[in-house]
Amino acid sequence: MLPKGGDAIWGNLTWAPDDEPGQAMSFGTTLKFAQKNTTTDLQNMTISESMQFLLSHSDDWYADQLTRNYSHGVALTRKEIERNEKIPSKWVNPLESRLPLAPNMKIYCFYGVFIPAAFLTLSNRTM
């Protein structure tokens, strides 16, 4: 459930799509650090900066899997989308690839609160 689209979708330190006019602080700041009794100067971060922070503070195996298998950008032209059809890591990002041409494809979305994941099952009999 990592955010896709980077700063183009989520905003930056001064602007975000869901900011109200005259708002004191932008929602584009994803990670916010309180500056209380610390000698470390921690800076607030945007989505792009947060992703880099995650990669630099993760185990090597996780960072490697994340960078090789998942894409978090935005395709801005039809040519980019067509080129991304040949790159499997782009397929998981609907902002960089088109949906499949499958008129009979079913998409299921699960949402649960306080339900252990081990108990979630999908059965054609219950659909």
How do the helices and strands follow one another from N- to C-terminus? HHHH
Q: Helicity level, as a percent range?
A: 25-40%
% residues in beta strands: under 5%
Any idea what the radius of gyration is? Answer: 19 Å
- Poorly predicted regions: 123-127
Count helical runs. 4
Number of domains: 1
Summarize the biggest pleated sheet: none
Number of strands: 0
Mean pLDDT over all positions: 81
Tell me, briefly, the overall form. globular
End-to-end Cα distance, whole Å, is: 25 Å
Q: In terms of structural class, how would the helical and strand content be classed?
A: mainly alpha
Describe, in plain words, how this protein is organized in 3D.
The protein is mostly helical and 127 residues long. The chain has one domain. The chain is built from four helices and no strands. The chain has helices spanning 6-10, 47-56, 60-69, 78-84. The longest helix has 10 residues, at 47-56. The two termini are 25 Å apart. The relative contact order is 0.13.
